[in-house]
Structure formats: C-alpha cells, structure tokens
Amino acid sequence: MLVTALRHGGGKAAIARGMGVRLSPGRNLVDLLVSRAQWPKAVEHLEPGAPIALTACDPTDYTTFQIKGRLLSCADAEEADLILGAAYRARIFAHLKTLGVEDRQIGCWLTAEDLVRLRFAPQSVFHQTPGAAAGAMRAAASESPLP
Questions:
Q1: Which CATH architecture has domain 2-140?
Q2: For the whole model, what pTM was predicted?
Q3: Using CB atoms within 10 A as the burial measure, which of 14, 20, 29, 99 is most buried?
C-alpha cells in the first residue's frame, strides 16, 4: 500500500493514495503515480522542490518504510505509467482479497483514473513498522537510501 503526503506552493498539506511506484535504474529517482480524479487537491499547484513523503506498507505484516524527498516534477501519466498503474491496482486488489477485504471495501479508494506521475529525489528512508525501530532512519541520501 502506498500513501503520500505533500505540500504544494501555497503551503497547504495534502495526502493521496499511490497507484504504483517505480525506481530509476540508479535508485536515485522515484516515480509515484497518483489519481488526480480522486486526489485533486493533493496534486494541484505542486512546485518543484516541494517536500514529499511516501509511505509504503505491506498489508500482510505491516512492514513499513517512509521515503522523504523533494519533488522534481508532476506530469500527466504516459503509456508506461498507465500500464504500471493498472498492474498495481490489479495486484493490490488481489492481495487485499486474500486478506479478507471485500471488493466493495476496496473499489471506492483504489482507482487508476486520470493518473499523474510525481517524480522525486529521495533524501532519506525511515523504518515505520510498528515496534521499537519505528521512526529510525534507515539511510540518508548520501548512503544510497533505497535498497
């Protein structure tokens, strides 16, 4: 599961559910897909340099990490992004069903409609899995933060 927190040029904070993520080959860029149709206020008026945090959680065991960085760009999704978003939706939908979540509980918040691509440079990664290590820094950008 993917959730992002951002702040646009007016300084107003917003959250949005991610609909797919891609790391660059060098792992120095993250592309996050977000539905503009579902989260319009989260993606409007975004400016390069804005802070962004992406929380990624495995709903099976709640293993969770948070990646913090700075936004580089916000753009309409391209064909490869649309394919990634559709695949992510199908995969997470199927996974949640194995955990007992019903279609009617998922459909209203898991949409790949009108995707935008948020590209950001990761600066640090934190453990967020509930427990004693929650909040501990995993790595800073200078330490190659992404596994």
A1: Roll (2.30)
A2: 0.88
A3: 20
